[in-house]
């Protein structure tokens, strides 16, 4: 989850974005623990450069971007693409998102558990702890 810091007109510049506290550390520890973190996003292809500029792209197993795959959340196909990329069954995957329809209903439609940001998890440490300790 990347949070917008400045106006929409500056969205193409990495300086307009930042990672929430603890995000880098949690992503690093998840990768180190062997957890495959796949980004599933309705953003466009600028996301790759943005994640590279934020020095986090190497922490992700892969990126599934709607503008590249041709379908967007909540379409189950975008979640299926993530499962294929990670070689994981739906019942062993967790999706973290912030939208009830796009994220939770979309993921749940194919058997992926979904944790809603702000309700089920509130920090990246919450995510890390639940994934590594469950």
TrEMBL record:
Domain of life, per lineage: Eukaryota
* SUPFAM superfamilies, per database record: HAD-like
Q: Which Pfam families match?
A: Hydrolase
Q: What is the official name of this protein in its record?
A: Haloacid dehalogenase-like hydrolase domain-containing protein 3
Can you name the source organism? Salix viminalis (Common osier)
């Amino acid at each position: 989850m990347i949070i917008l810091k400045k106006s929409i007109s500056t969205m193409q510049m990495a300086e307009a974005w930042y990672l929430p506290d603890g995000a880098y550390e949690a992503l690093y520890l998840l990768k180190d623990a062997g957890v495959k973190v796949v980004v599933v996003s309705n953003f466009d292809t600028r996301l790759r450069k943005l994640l590279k500029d934020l020095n986090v792209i190497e922490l992700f197993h892969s990126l599934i971007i709607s503008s590249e795959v041709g379908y967007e959340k909540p379409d189950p196909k975008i979640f299926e693409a993530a499962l294929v990329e990670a070689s994981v069954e739906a019942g062993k995957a967790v999706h973290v998102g912030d939208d009830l329809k796009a994220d939770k209903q979309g993921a749940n439609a194919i058997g992926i558990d979904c944790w809603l940001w702000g309700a089920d998890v509130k920090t990246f440490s919450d995510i890390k702890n639940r994934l590594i300790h469950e």
